[in-house]
Amino acid sequence: MKLVLWLLLFVLCWPLALLALLLYPLFWLLSLPFRLVGLAVEGVFDLLRALVLLPSRLLRLGR
Length: 63
Description:
Layout: H1 2-61
């Protein structure tokens, strides 16, 4: 019975594995612009945080 279940799983899953292998590069290309936008937004927030915290850093430096 175990062998039959393993064979059934193999027969059902290898097409899904091949489909995932073929669609992964397409998904990666489609998600690339969102990653670039995320990096740009993160950079802007880091810049704003640095500007807001600049006075406290300058006061701490004077001690």
